[in-house]
Amino acid sequence: MNDAQTLAVEVAAVEQVTPLIKHFKLASADGGPLPAFSGGSHIIVVMRGAARMHRNPYSLLSSPRELDHYEIGVRRMEESRGGSHFMHDQVRVGSRLEIAHPVNLFALDKIARKHVLIAGGIGITPFLAQLEDLHDGAVPYELHYSVRSPEHAAFLTRLREREGEKVRMYYDSENQAVDFDGLLSKQPLGTHVYVCGPAGLINKVIATAKSCGWPDSHVHWEQFSAPPVGDAFDVFLSRSRLTVHVPHDQSLMESIEAAGVEVPYLCRGGVCGYCQTRVLELDGELKHYDHFLSDAEKAKGNSIMPCVSRARCKSLVLDL
Amino acid sequence: MSAVFKPDETFRNDFTFRNSPQAIRRFPLPFHEDEYMYSVNIEPHLPGPKGAVTEFAFDVDEHYVAECREREIVLAAEPLRFQALPHMMSSQWDCLELLMDSLARDYPAHFSLTKQGNRWQWINRPLGLNQSFIFGDVDTLPHQPLDYAARQAQGDFVVMDQREGDLWTEAGVVTTQADWSLDFDMGMTFKEWHGPVPLAHELGVFDRALKFLLNLRLGQPVRRLNWTMTVHPRLDTSPENYPHWGPDRATVTARNAGELVHLRVELQGLWRLPRSNAIIFGIRCYLISVQELATIPKWARRVHRVLKNLHPALVDYKGLTRYRDAVVEWLAPFDDGAPTTPGNGPE
Predict the structure, then answer these.
(1) Which among B87, B215, B219 has CB closest to A5?
(2) Total Cβ atoms within 10 A of residue A64
(3) Looking at the partner chain, which of B163, B218, B274 has a beta carbon nearest the beta carbon of A109?
(4) ipTM of the complex
């Protein structure tokens, strides 16, 4: 994808819903309906800051049936390279942004007999849209939502209105935790589990499901990694015959784009594998932060996901 | 293109289907060179030149009314040519919306769609239909949504659900197919569905195609051309009806090949569907007789060369074994050995 295919939107409402999370309503700049989507989809928000451009993925949390606006929740990241800070500090009602068409990498399985949804913190957002589809359906579901403390429980009022006591809350501050073994060991055949939230939560669910004998195909997770900061390095793009400097606080993909070279992408969060790029030469070490390549592929070192991964190296040559 | 419909054409029995000179010139020849081998020849489904078959999302041509009637005949005789598993209902509505939105936008003289919330009114002037219905309420339409919409479009449609890193054939309307069966393929994964295709698996074509399609984006449809040949302008060459059309192959001679044998080209389009996250696969069949093709000198030379040198496995798979040589012989006088220009256009 590239910026020619983005949609212009205007921020219609902004609300601080927890100490760390802001809730944005985006309406089409031309006033018309936005494209339909399915629960679990994300959009890429393109932010044109003064110094640099950010493109961050955010799950759509609004109802797939209401297309006069999209809603997203943005958590302020402590170690942000700027995207979430831009959204929190500079975007207000009336701000213009660009977004890419929705993409769904976290869809509900349509032939599941039951859905178990597990959210941690900001990971609640894709489930809010999915619940709109599940609410009127015949397939049973349950939602488990864990947060640090009651003040961090974003969108709980909305959830309670729709789902009532179906929402099981877990507060770290009160030493409550999901009993993963208990939850995953007694589900009926055909159940699918979905988890979205911090890496620790996702890893715990994946490991527990495995030990309980769940097939991999019934375990779904989504975690968008923000591109981490790291050492600065230089990369040579062999096809473009161009050397690009990657500063410590900018991602490899962003740096390449800033130099005018297009990298195909979908999620910009290390999930989809679309931006996989061949490493032609390396004197140093790749720092893989994606969830797409297997450990064996990462160890081989002949490809990289420039959206989140970096290098600590003397030289790096990519097939771009 | 604002075509003049030929409502009385037939694709069975007396086979009165013909292409007008305009239809011949816009025929989507699938050969960009004088030889043919499989490739993942997928390109963005962007609007083509004015009058081209790719000018709009779904092409409506001079055969529209006749092809819609042919579909009604097949569906009435064999209702299982439309099938949809229960979990595909949201994708059926997605398909109906894509077809109606596209046709109304691209051919306002023929079709119109008015939406007031979920209350929709659809007018199809060539077929004389005026239908008010509630989007999402299947009881307000005379057929299921995909069935209803596909009866008013040319070409077949297969809907694939996406899950477990694969695409599953779980709904479709298939009445103009080149010897494959929706009934047989329902529930199959992408590679199971394409199991019979020779050579392409070994070339890794389906690995790459599947990976590409799993990432197909909303608003960025793609297309490709595929082809085979058929004796008579027969749209419905289904395995179920093989006894009706299989024997036709034995009637082809080097004298009658120009009239009997048709190049059968599929313009295949793939769209991501928004509400269901499924993919609709449109397979639009264009037929042209070899003698119609030969009215374009470049195409006569090129098709002669392609057929003459076609890989034996493809000759068998495409079902040309019995009559390929007859067609090559019929075309030979049109091929003076002169070079052909690049690209698939008529000049």
Answers:
(1) B219
(2) 20
(3) B163
(4) 0.85
pLDDT given at position A48: 85
Same-domain check for residues A207 and A238: no
Q: Tell me if A1 and B87 make a contact (CB, 8 A cut-off).
A: no
Q: Are residues A128 and A76 in the same domain?
A: no
Considering chain A, what is the average pLDDT of its residues? Answer: 92
What gap in Å lies between CA A265 and CA B215, rounded to an integer? 10
Same domain, A90 and A174: no
For residue A92, the domain's CATH number is: 2.40.30.10
Q: Please name the residue of chain B whose CA is at the shortest distance from the CA of residue A38.
A: B275
pLDDT band at A4 (very low <50, low <70, confident <90, very high): very low
The answer for residues whose C-beta is within 8 angstroms of residue A66's C-beta and 6 or more apart is none
Number of folded domains that form chain A: 3
A302, containing H or E segment = none
pLDDT tens digits for A248-276?
888 999 999 999 998 988 778 887 788 99
One domain, residues A281 and A263? yes
Q: What are the mean pLDDT values of chain B's consecutive 10-residue runs (347 residues total)?
A: 86 97 96 82 88 97 98 97 97 98 97 96 98 97 98 98 95 95 96 82 78 87 93 96 94 97 97 96 98 97 96 90 96 95 90
Q: Same domain, yes or no, for A208 and A170?
A: yes
Q: Which of A104, A132, A154 is the last residue in one of the domains?
A: A104
Residue A51 forms beta bridges with which residues?
Answer: none
By the CB < 8 Å criterion, does B275 face chain A? yes
Quick one: pLDDT at residue B37?
A: 79
Residue B18 to residue B6: CA distance in whole angstroms? 9
Distance from CA of B274 to the nearest CA of A (A): 5
Residue A227 lies in a domain: no
Identify whether residues A255 and A216 lie together within a single domain: no
Residue A1's pLDDT is: 43
Inside any domain, residue A28: yes
From A182, A202, A222, give the residue that closes a domain: A222
Q: How far is B131 from chain A (nearest CA, A)?
A: 23
Rounded Cα distance, A56 and A24, in Å:
14
Q: Does B86 touch chain A (CB under 8 A)?
A: no
Q: With pLDDT > 90 as the criterion, what percentage of chain A qualifies?
A: 75
* Interfacial residues of A (vs B; Cβ cutoff 8 Å): 1, 5, 35-38, 40-41, 64, 101-104, 107, 109-111, 217, 266, 272, 274
Range of the domain at A290: 233-318
Judge whether A228 lies within some domain: no
Q: Do A110 and B163 touch (CB under 8 A)?
A: yes
In a domain, A275, yes or no: yes
Measured distance CA(B143)–CA(A220) in Å, rounded: 35
Contact flag A38-B274 (C-beta cutoff 8 Å): yes
Residues A137 and A92 in one domain: no
For position A159, which CATH number holds? Answer: 3.40.50.80
- B173: CB partners within 8 A, 6+ apart: B71, B75, B81, B82, B146, B147, B150, B151, B156, B157, B182
Query: If you measure CA to CA, which chain A residue comes closest to B161?
Result: A110
- A114-120 and A191-196 as β-strands: parallel, antiparallel, unpaired? parallel
The reply to whether A270 and A190 lie within a common domain is: no
**CB within 8 Å: A38 and B276:** yes
H or E element at residue A75: strand A70-75
**Contact yes or no for B217 and A101 at CB 8 A:** yes
Assess whether pLDDT exceeds 60 at residue A2. no
Task: Show residues of chain A in contact with B164, CB under 8 Å.
Answer: 109, 217
Beta-carbon pairs below 8 A across chains A and B: 48
Residue with tokens 């976290």: A106
The pair of structure tokens assigned to B107 is 């051919």
